[in-house]
């Protein structure tokens, strides 16, 4: 193989590696869907699986309450979605301990075992009321 052919061959191999690394990386280490949605200011953010899957739209929106218009904060929506998901997971999937602990950590910043979260009343979390002007 001539030097020119070797350069072309290795250039093609390098190009294939450069193109395939992000694809493989996203398959092995998918980006947090919620982080991407918040970064772009649009899209759905979902937590949980199956019957305990709860989602919210990260786009800012306004709702009518009586004669007033109220802005709905996406972070309040996220908080309420996490509360709903944790409570559902504790009720229906208490064996899904890693997910319950992860969701509680996102919500509170605290490391607590799923047993404590689900059995001690910590899962009875307070939701924001976004319908008050």
What is the structure about, briefly put?
This protein is α+β, with helices and mostly antiparallel strands.
The SS-based structural class is: alpha+beta
| Side-by-side strand order of the widest sheet | 1-2
As an assembly, this protein is: single chain
The largest sheet is: 2 strands, antiparallel
Order of helix and strand elements from N to C terminus: HHEEEEHHH
Overall pLDDT: 78
**Roughly how many Å apart are the termini?**
76 Å
What fraction strand? 5-15%
β-strand number: 4
Work out the helix count.
Answer: 5
Question: Low-confidence parts lasting 5 or more residues at pLDDT below 50?
Answer: 25-30
Tell me, briefly, the overall form: elongated
Radius of gyration: 22 Å
Counted up, domains total 2
State the share of residues found in helices, binned by percent. Answer: 40-55%
Describe the structure.
The protein is of the alpha+beta class and 133 residues long. The protein folds into 2 domains: 1-29; 31-133, no CATH class. 53% of the residues lie in helices and 14% in strands. A two-stranded antiparallel sheet has the order 1-2. β1 (44-47) and β2 form a beta hairpin. α3 runs antiparallel to α4. The longest helix is centred in the N-terminal third of the chain and has 26 residues, at 3-28. The radius of gyration is 22 Å and the shape is elongated.
